[in-house]
Recover the amino acids of this structure.
C-alpha cells in the first residue's frame, strides 16, 4: 500500500471493561475507498468513530495506541478536536439533516467555522450540492425544509453538508442501509466519484456493495482485524478461513 | 362469554362516569363563578379604581398588579430556568452532584406556596430590606415557577433527536454552537410552553404574594412600589366581607385570564408538536 493519509497503529478501545477493538493496525491510502466489513458487533463502526474522535462523546471509553492523520497522533492531548472533525467528516446511517432549509443545512458547517459573507456561503452551497449530485434537483427550492426531501436526497444532502467544510477524509457508517435500491445506486455512484478526490472509509454490511465500490477491504471479527488487502484479491483469494466463511455468507 | 361482556361494559361505564363527573365538576366551578361574576363585569369595572376599600368601584390597579408581578417574575425565572435546563441536559453526565440538584429542583416544586410567602417576607422584605414591593413579590413568584420552567424546558431539550447533535459535532462545531444553533431552536416551542405554564401559575398565586407584594391599591411605577394583584384583592374582598359581588367578578376576570393563558399553551404545544415530526 502507498503511504496512508490516515492510519491506526496498534489501536485498542475499551467501552468500560469491554475490549471492543484489539490492537488494530491499518492504513487508508489517499484518494481511495476502503470498506470495513464484518458481522454485527465486530467493532467496525467503533473503529470508524475513532477516526474522528466521535467516541469521545461516549462515557467510559478508553483508547490505547495511535491514530495518525498525516503523521500526527489525533489522540494527543493538545489536538483541537473541532478542527480534526473539520478535516475528517462523517455521514451517518440514518440521514440526519437539521430541521432547517436546504440552504441553512449546507451553510451550517462553514458558518460554525466562521464564514459570514452571504455571497461566499451561496457559492459554497452551490458547489457542495453540485459535488453531491443534488444541485439540479433542489436548486429551485433551497429555502424549503430539508426534511421534505426523500431519504436518498437527504443522505446526499448530508454528504453535501459535509463537503461544504472541505474535509480531506470522509467516514461513512452504512450510508445506504436506510435507503431503497434506487437511492442506494445514486449514493454509490456519488461515492465512486468522490473517491477520486477524498480518502473514504465506509462501514458496510453488504458484501456486494463493498465489492462494487471499494478499492481496499478489511474484515473484522469480534474486535480483531482478521485480514485486509486489495478488494479483488481478498474476494477471490482470502487467506484466512474466517474471511472466506464470512464473504461467502456462511455466517453473518 | 356473557360474564366477560358484562364486566367489560360495567368497567367502561364506570370509567366513562368518572370522566363525566370530572368534567362536570370543572364546568360547575367555572360556571358558578362566571355566572355570579359576569353580572358585575363591564368596561367601567375593568378600568376604574376601587373605592371605599373595594366595596365599590373597579379593579383596574389590581389587573395591572397581576400583569406587572407576573411579567417581572418571568423576566427573572425564564433566563435562569432555561440556562439551568440547558446545563442539566447538555453539559452534565449524571453523577451524585447532579442528582442532588435535581432533587432540590423537584422539591422546590412541592413546597407549599404560603411557605414561599413567609420566606419572602423574612428574607426579601425584611432581611434584604426590599420591603413590600413588586420586586419582593416577583422574586417569590419566580422561585415558585422556576421548577416548572426547568422541568418543561429540559423535557423539550431531551426530545430533540440526538442525531442532530451528532451531525453538528461531526461537522466540527463546538458543544456550545451545537446547543445554541441546533438544539435550542429545535426546543423553542417547548420553551414557549414552559413560559406559558409558568405564567398561568404565577397569575393565580395568592399566598406567595400575600406577604411580599404588599397590597396597596395604587399603580406600581417602580420595582420598589407595593402592589396588589387580582388574587389578593379577591381574597380581601371576600374574607373581609367588603363586597361579595365584586369578589365573584374579580374571580371571573382571573379565571378567564388563566383559561386564556393555558389554552394558548396547549394550542402552541400541539401545533409545534406536529411540526417537529
Amino acid at each position: 500500500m502507498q503511504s496512508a493519509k490516515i492510519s491506526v497503529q496498534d489501536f485498542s478501545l475499551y467501552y468500560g471493561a469491554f475490549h471492543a477493538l484489539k490492537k488494530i493496525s491499518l492504513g487508508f491510502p489517499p484518494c481511495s475507498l476502503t470498506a470495513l466489513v464484518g458481522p454485527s458487533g465486530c467493532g467496525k463502526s467503533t473503529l470508524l468513530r475513532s477516526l474522528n474522535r466521535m467516541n469521545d462523546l461516549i462515557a467510559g471509553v478508553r483508547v490505547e495506541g495511535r491514530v495518525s492523520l498525516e503523521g500526527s497522533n489525533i489522540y494527543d492531548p493538545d489536538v483541537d478536536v473541532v478542527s480534526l472533525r473539520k478535516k475528517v467528516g462523517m455521514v451517518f446511517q440514518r440521514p440526519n439533516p437539521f430541521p432547517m432549509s436546504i440552504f441553512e443545512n449546507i451553510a451550517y458547517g462553514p458558518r460554525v467555522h466562521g464564514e459570514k459573507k452571504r455571497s461566499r456561503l451561496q457559492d459554497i452551497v452551490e458547489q457542495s450540492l453540485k459535488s453531491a449530485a443534488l444541485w439540479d434537483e433542489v436548486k429551485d427550492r433551497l429555502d424549503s425544509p430539508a426534511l421534505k426531501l426523500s431519504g436518498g436526497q437527504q443522505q446526499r444532502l448530508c454528504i453535501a453538508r459535509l463537503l461544504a467544510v472541505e474535509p480531506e477524509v470522509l467516514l461513512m457508517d452504512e450510508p445506504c442501509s436506510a435507503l431503497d435500491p434506487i437511492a442506494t445506486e445514486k449514493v454509490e455512484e456519488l461515492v465512486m466519484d468522490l473517491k477520486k478526490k477524498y480518502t473514504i472509509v465506509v462501514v458496510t454490511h453488504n458484501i456486494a456493495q463493498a465489492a462494487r465500490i471499494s478499492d481496499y477491504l478489511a474484515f473484522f471479527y469480534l474486535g480483531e482485524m482478521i485480514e485486509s488487502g486489495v478488494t479483488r484479491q481478498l474476494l477471490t483469494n482470502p487467506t484466512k478461513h474466517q474471511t472466506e466463511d464470512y464473504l461467502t455468507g456462511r455466517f453473518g | 362469554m356473557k360474564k366477560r361482556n358484562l364486566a367489560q361494559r360495567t368497567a367502561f361505564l364506570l370509567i366513562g362516569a368518572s370522566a363525566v363527573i370530572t368534567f362536570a365538576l370543572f364546568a360547575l366551578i367555572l360556571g358558578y363563578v362566571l355566572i355570579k361574576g359576569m353580572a358585575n363585569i363591564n368596561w367601567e369595572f375593568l378600568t376604574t379604581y376601587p373605592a371605599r376599600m373595594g366595596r365599590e368601584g373597579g379593579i383596574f390597579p389590581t389587573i395591572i398588579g397581576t400583569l406587572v408581578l407576573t411579567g417581572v417574575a418571568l423576566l427573572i425565572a425564564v433566563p435562569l430556568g432555561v440556562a439551568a435546563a440547558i446545563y442539566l441536559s447538555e453539559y452534565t453526565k449524571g453523577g451524585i452532584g447532579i442528582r442532588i440538584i435535581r432533587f432540590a429542583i423537584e422539591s422546590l416544586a412541592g413546597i407549599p406556596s404560603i411557605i414561599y410567602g413567609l420566606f419572602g417576607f423574612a428574607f426579601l422584605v425584611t432581611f434584604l430590606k426590599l420591603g413590600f414591593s413588586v420586586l419582593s413579590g416577583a422574586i417569590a413568584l419566580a422561585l415558585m415557577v422556576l421548577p416548572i420552567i426547568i422541568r418543561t424546558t429540559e423535557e423539550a431539550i431531551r426530545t430533540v433527536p440526538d442525531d442532530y447533535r451528532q451531525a453538528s459535532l461531526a461537522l466540527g462545531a463546538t458543544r456550545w454552537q451545537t446547543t445554541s444553533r441546533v438544539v435550542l431552536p429545535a426546543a423553542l416551542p417547548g420553551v414557549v410552553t414552559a413560559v406559558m405554564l409558568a405564567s398561568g401559575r404565577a397569575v393565580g398565586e395568592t399566598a406567595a404574594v400575600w406577604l411580599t407584594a404588599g397590597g396597596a391599591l395604587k399603580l406600581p411605577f417602580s420595582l420598589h412600589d407595593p402592589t396588589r394583584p387580582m388574587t389578593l384583592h379577591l381574597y380581601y374582598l371576600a374574607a373581609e366581607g367588603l363586597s361579595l359581588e365584586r369578589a365573584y367578578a374579580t374571580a371571573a376576570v382571573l379565571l378567564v385570564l388563566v383559561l386564556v393563558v393555558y389554552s394558548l399553551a396547549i394550542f402552541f404545544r400541539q401545533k409545534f408538536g406536529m411540526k417537529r415530526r
In short: The first strand of chain A starts at residue 6 and ends at 15.
